[in-house]
Write a structure and sequence with these properties.
The protein has two domains: 43 residues, no CATH class; 193 residues, MetI-like fold, CATH 1.10.3720. 69% of the residues lie in helices and 0% in strands. It is built from 14 helices and no strands. It is found in: Cell membrane.
Length: 300
């Protein structure tokens, strides 16, 4: 018994000529480490490429007047606010900013209202031709805006909408992307909520205001940010409709400054001013953006 136990505990020696190989997972560790390091490096490179134009814009905006650009603008010790004061005094930036705010904010409110109502109808209502109507409306995404620009202008011009706020805003309200996003979010909401509201005797408008709207606040905020950025940075349609200087938006106004031989430093100062509202909107609604991503896959 002692002999057998001793032999059982004795380690088995390796066969002659055999080499001790490292564990199978040891060779994979460098590859995994490289893969984990590669994604952050790629993200940093993308961030640098994205942020660099904005950084150059700000540097040139604060550079001394006289058309100074890179590399002279890199000397931050000579930064000045003279370009901002000059562009605010010489150009009608305030009027253009008001036009852009009216165009963007009113469009956001109306598009959110109409798209949420349409999305609720397409997601939870049953009526003849619903699918055909939805996909026909969605097919308009494949038509470029440039192809409909002339018919839009002729129609708005015949109705007297040139150089007016309603002519600037109304043609942009039928947003198929917004309707599609709303429909895809509302279709995930549990049907039991709507059935319970109907049993309690709630009307369609009450269901929309007390059930649908509170549940879609994250996607409303997300869509609101996108719509605001689309309209704030829009150039072609405001250029066509706003033919007078009083109806110019910021994007159109800054483009006209370049044609008036205004110094590049002042133009970059005006462009920097246009970025501030976008940053404020994104900062205020950032929490709702993350909530929308977190709840996008929830179902009953």
């Amino acid at each position: 018994m002692a002999t057998s136990s001793t032999s059982a505990e004795r380690p088995v020696s390796a066969a002659p000529g055999s080499s001790s190989a490292p564990p199978a997972g040891t060779a994979r560790h460098p590859r995994r480490a490289a893969a984990r390091l590669g994604l952050p490096v790629l993200l940093v490179l993308v961030a640098v490429v994205t942020v660099t134009p904005f950084a150059v814009m700000v540097l040139v905006a604060f550079a001394p007047a006289g058309g100074q650009t890179l590399p002279g603008a890199l000397d931050v010790t000579r930064a000045t606010l003279a370009n901002f004061t000059d562009v605010l005094e010489n150009a009608d930036i305030t009027r253009w900013a008001v036009n852009s705010l009216i165009y963007s904010l009113v469009s956001v409110l109306l598009i959110l209202l109409f798209s949420s109502m349409a999305g609720y109808a397409f997601a939870k209502k049953r009526f003849p031709g619903r699918e055909i109507l939805f996909w026909s409306f969605l097919a308009t995404l494949m038509v470029p805006f440039q192809a409909t620009l002339i018919p839009y202008y002729i129609l708005v011009s015949e109705l007297g909408g040139v150089d007016t706020y309603w002519g600037l805003i109304v043609p942009t309200l039928a947003n198929s992307q917004a309707v599609f996003l709303m429909r895809q979010f509302i279709v995930q909401l549990p049907d039991e909520l709507f059935e319970a509201a109907k049993i309690d005797g709630a009307s369609e408008w009450r269901i929309y205001t007390t059930v649908v709207l509170p549940l879609i606040r994250p996607v409303l905020a997300t869509l609101g940010v996108f719509v605001f950025l689309w309209h704030w940075n829009d150039f072609l349609w405001p250029l066509v409709i706003g033919q007078s200087e009083e109806m110019r938006t910021l994007t159109v106004g800054l483009a006209t400054l370049e044609g008036e031989n205004v110094a590049i430093n002042q133009i970059m100062a005006g462009a920097t001013i246009t970025v501030i509202p976008c940053l404020l909107v994104f900062g205020l609604l950032q929490r709702y953006l993350t909530d929308s991503i977190a709840t996008s896959g929830l179902k009953s």
